[in-house]
Automatic annotation (TrEMBL), chains A, B:
Keywords assigned: Oxidoreductase
A Pfam family that the UniProt record links to this protein: GFO_IDH_MocA_C3
Species whose genome carries this gene: Halorientalis persicus
Keyword Lipid metabolism: no
Protein name: D-xylose dehydrogenase (NADP)
Domain called GFO/IDH/MocA-like oxidoreductase: residue spans: 156-281
Lineage: Archaea, Methanobacteriati, Methanobacteriota, Stenosarchaea group, Halobacteria
Domain annotation Gfo/Idh/MocA-like oxidoreductase N-terminal: ranges: 25-148
Length: 360, 360
């Protein structure tokens, strides 16, 4: 396989198995923050295989407002209504986009009702709670997918194809980065992302460092065996977390080192690059939903820039999830996959605190 | 100052103080490997302020051959001849490009003769020997410059100008990388770069990891306070060194983390990128002498690619060195600057071995 063959199929949905009319998978969206309203619900409306039929919020009033605002949403429920089993006939699957530390109970209820779950990342605020989530899903035999939208990003998939085809040789090093000016985006020091009780162990690795971390795993198709980390949190709004910013190195088997940085107080920027024995590939920008994707591949002295038509990653993600549910196949980013990230993240915070390499 | 003003002067020699006819500074080149013959001597021939007048090698025969090969070289000397003070009237300065662990004695002799010295990087094979080199130069009152050719690279200087002008805001993270397929370039497992007695503590950090390391210091105008590192040396030719490849994080003051990788067994590749609170700048390719330079600056959502006319970095470096000697000014990359790198490198190897953060 050559470079052109790999890159030519760049917008193809190489994962879709269900017919376009196999759905819709009816989705209850849980957690109605800006992400769900501005990104998730419109993406579902635009999808081939999904439809939003239920909206769930802590506040029943807000849920009903959102239900009234969007066509096709039949029910606006409070969290309590949801846990009590209201309107279970009106949805087949649940999308959980509440603060990290509140995912578990929604997934447990969904599992009780036999509903498939797409849960935002990181899947929970601690390894212990993530393990309980996986156990609940396993016991109920439901599909549990963690919402790694990078997995259905055509640019990311094509770079993995290049690696699989051996066109970059053996991978040697990975560089990854994601940063955003959180306090400019959401100028509220009391937001849940800065509250360890709701967000988990930190602010930058958990929320955005996760992107280069998980994408490195996805591209290398391998999991790190040890981590090291450096952290800093000098900004005022970051007094309760260890990491306004962080640098961490993931040691993969065979001496492949992925070195990553993340910051909640820097210009919006993201990239991931794999350098191999025969060449390299870089995706930049890589991770923000509102940016185009560009892949630069260098091999044998030749550099090729490929501009990727921007796809709606959230739409692709919802259709991938629906596709897996409708065809009875496991998603790649399943509960165990997410749990591995949780263990890595916990190790990164431990390494950062202790100034020591932590083995996984 | 705006972006255009900074980038417009991109090929200017903002450092030259001497008149073009102030020289030539007559240089004795010591160590006649491929680098000296193919890169250094031609660069000096092309310089405004230098001329090669003496060639020194372990073998007098080789030195005389090289002297005969290049116009203007008056003397071919053995190392012994050099140390004995032969032809000291024929040169004003010494360029030392022998294996790392053999720099010290040449610099000591040059200092004895009152000659200025341009010494290849890393300046020696250990901190202890580097300290002796600095002491010898200080005692003799000679100029000692370490050959960081990145310091006169226009692309690197312009990115520093952007940082100084505050156009990227406060720096937050740096990514740097350098790799080359050493065994394809020099297919000899007995080469000095793989021999700790000649090269120093390792193979990749000392030889090429030094580029992102030193360039991060140069761009940030700051020195790291702690380091972490991961190393691997599984390739057969690398049995005697800890690092066929390495990843290391430099912790600079104010929580600025520079995360770097280096490998002697990967495709040729190099970059350095600074991400700040207001924008970012990337140089890619960054470090190999035979590649053009491209700088990509992203600020306020706008990305600007600037292709830099390739300058002969070695020529610039020799002229910078001559300029400092002829105008009686200290070079930026002086002995103390090089010694700081040596201490950082030693800390990186210690951190890699122990799996622990090492403070400087």
């Amino acid at each position: 396989m050559d470079l052109a063959t790999v890159l030519d199929g760049f917008t193809a949905r190489d994962w879709q198995g269900a017919a376009d009319d196999a759905g819709p998978l009816r989705v209850a969206v849980v957690g109605l923050g800006w992400w769900t309203r501005d990104e998730a619900i419109p993406a579902i409306a635009d999808s081939r295989l999904c439809a939003t039929t239920v909206a769930v919020s802590r506040s029943r009033e807000k849920a009903r407002e959102v239900a009234a605002e969007f066509e096709g949403i039949e029910h606006g429920l409070s969290g309590e209504d949801f846990h009590d089993g209201a309107a279970t006939d009106a949805y087949d699957a649940v999308y959980v986009a509440t603060p990290n530390a509140t995912h578990l109970e929604y997934v447990e209820s969904a599992a009780d009702f036999g509903k498939a779950v797409l849960c935002e990342k990181p899947m929970e605020a601690s390894v212990e709670r993530a393990e309980r989530m996986v156990a609940a899903a396993d016991e109920a035999g439901i599909t549990l997918m963690i919402a790694y939208r990078m997995h259905t990003e055509p640019a990311v998939r094509r770079v993995r194809d290049l690696l699989r085809a051996g066109l970059l040789g053996d991978p040697v090093a990975v560089h990854g980065h994601m940063s955003q000016p959180l306090m400019e985006m959401i100028p509220n020091p009391d937001q849940w992302r800065l509250d360890p009780e709701l967000a988990g162990p930190g602010a930058s690795v958990t929320d955005i460092g996760l992107y280069p971390l998980n994408t490195a795993r996805f591209l290398l198709e391998s999991d790190p065996v040890a981590v090291q980390a450096s952290m800093d949190a000098s900004g005022e709004a970051f007094a309760d977390v260890p990491d306004e910013r962080a640098a961490f190195t993931l040691e993969f088997p065979d001496g492949v080192f992925a070195t990553c940085t993340a910051s909640q107080h820097a210009a919006q920027s993201s990239h991931i690059e794999v350098i191999g024995t025969e060449g390299r590939a870089r995706i930049d920008p890589a991770f923000f939903a509102n940016e185009p994707r560009q892949v630069t591949v260098t091999r044998e002295g030749t550099t090729l820039d490929v501009d990727f038509e921007q796809v709606d990653e959230m739409r692709e993600e919802f259709d991938y999830f629906a596709d897996r549910v409708l065809t009875g196949r496991d998603p790649e980013g399943d509960g165990d996959h997410g749990l591995t990230d949780m263990r890595i993240i916990e190790a990164i915070y431990e390494a950062g605190e202790q100034g020591e390499r932590v083995e996984l």
